[in-house]
C-alpha cells in the first residue's frame, strides 16, 4: 500500500486525515517490515513532543480496523505494517528486524481436505525466524 492509498482509505471510512495521522502513516510507508508503537513514538517524538502511547495505540488500531495496517505479535508485543495490496499470499517475518518476505505458497487446500465438513471462515499464515542479515549479526 502507498501513503496516498492509505490516506484515501481512511477518508473513505469517514475519518479525518490530520497532520499527525499523515505523519504516522508516512512512518509505515518508509518502514521495511513490521514496527512497534514504541518505534512509531520514537519517530513522532521530535515533531510531536509528549505524544502519548494512548494516541499512538488508538490510531494504530484505527488504521488496522480500516484495513490500512496489518498486525502481528512478535515476542509478546503487537507489531504493525502497511497492508499488502497484491494477491493472496503469506509472510516470513524476521523476529529481530521485523522485515518480511512473501511466501507464494498456501497450505489451505490440504487443510480443507483434512477438516472435511468444517466451515473455514478465514486464515493467516505467518512463519517466524531470522533473516540472513540477522543470522550473521
From TrEMBL:
Pfam families: FUR
Keyword Transferase belongs to the record: no
Subcellular location as annotated: Cytoplasm
Record flagged with keyword Transcription: yes
Main location: cytoplasm
Keywords: Cytoplasm, DNA-binding, Repressor, Transcription, Transcription regulation, Zinc
Homology family: Belongs to the Fur family.
Stated name of the protein: Fur family transcriptional regulator
Amino acid at each position: 500500500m502507498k501513503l496516498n492509498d492509505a490516506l484515501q482509505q481512511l477518508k473513505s471510512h469517514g475519518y479525518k486525515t490530520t497532520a499527525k495521522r499523515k505523519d504516522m502513516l508516512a512512518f509505515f510507508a518508509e518502514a521495511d517490515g513490521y514496527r512497534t508503537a514504541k518505534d512509531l513514538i520514537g519517530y513522532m517524538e521530535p515533531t510531536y513532543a509528549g505524544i502519548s502511547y494512548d494516541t499512538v495505540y488508538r490510531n494504530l488500531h484505527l488504521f488496522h480496523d480500516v484495513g490500512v495496517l496489518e498486525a502481528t505479535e512478535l515476542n509478546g508485543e503487537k507489531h504493525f505494517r502497511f497492508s499488502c495490496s497484491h494477491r493472496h499470499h503469506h509472510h516470513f517475518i524476521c523476529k529481530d528486524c521485523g522485515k518480511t518476505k512473501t511466501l507464494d505458497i498456501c497450505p489451505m487446500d490440504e487443510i480443507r481436505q483434512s477438516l472435511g465438513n468444517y466451515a473455514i471462515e478465514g486464515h493467516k499464515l505467518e512463519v517466524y525466524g531470522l533473516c540472513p542479515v540477522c543470522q550473521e549479526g
